[in-house]
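ARCHIVE RECORD
Type: protein–small molecule complex
Small molecule: adenosine-5'-triphosphate
Source of inputs: curated submission
Record status: active
Notes field left blank by submitter.
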Amino acid sequence: MGERGGGALLRLRGVSRTYGERQALRPLDLDLAAGGCTVLFGHNGSGKSTLLRIAAGRDTPTGGTALFDGRPVSEDDPEVRARVAVVGDMAACYPDLTVREHLELVAVAHAVADADDWIDQVLADRRLADHAHALPASLSSGQMQSMLLAAALVRPRDLLILDEPEQRLDPDARRRLARLLLAERADGVAVLLATHQAELAVEVADRMVALEDGRVIAEGAPTEVLEQLGHRS
Ligand SMILES: Nc1ncnc2c1ncn2[C@@H]1O[C@H](COP(=O)(O)OP(=O)(O)OP(=O)(O)O)[C@@H](O)[C@H]1O
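STRUCTURE (tokenized, with ligand):
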């Protein structure tokens, strides 16, 4: 778990986001180093997705600075696109492309040479081999979630961003998700995720940021934060 450049890969300082009158995110700081995993935890509407979108460069904060490896995070920056993998939502799918074709498209977009073996491995790991030639409309919701995850795994990445990746997964797929995220960390990938599942957070993350109404109400080791929140598992 080496630290790239000795510091944080993702560095947020005083980052905030307002939508009109609504303050979705109040100024917060966040540092995430290579091999680290920070989990965002909080009720619906607490600001988790807003923060993830800013970290992914898909949205610009209305206050503060968001840096990836020292440069402003923007999806328009080829360096950010090359090194930041975001697990997308269903809107990111093409109805007439098969599961395998989606993965091939991502691999080609990232200039991965000889992607076939890599794609086969990811399909097998995500239990999608039997659905490689299926179209999105014929997938179950859990299989769809697995495909979206797979698409982030057939390309190089230094930062992996996931918004409630446990959604719609069965217990076995959730266990494999936890193992995957730990393996990502061991490979030096920084992982930032939002989840509603305390067990997943404890298993994979070394830091938890608890949000409420766009405000950080607790942060630290996941078990300690959950204790502060009075969370019972
Ligand atoms: N595009 C938008 N325009 C206006 N308000 C928005 C927009 N996106 C988010 N918000 C508001 O910002 C707040 C935070 O939303 P956000 O999606 O970040 O919450 P969340 O913690 O990800 O919730 P969930 O657990 O339901 O996914 C909410 O009050 C939401 O209504």
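CURATOR ANNOTATION: The radius of gyration is 17 Å.
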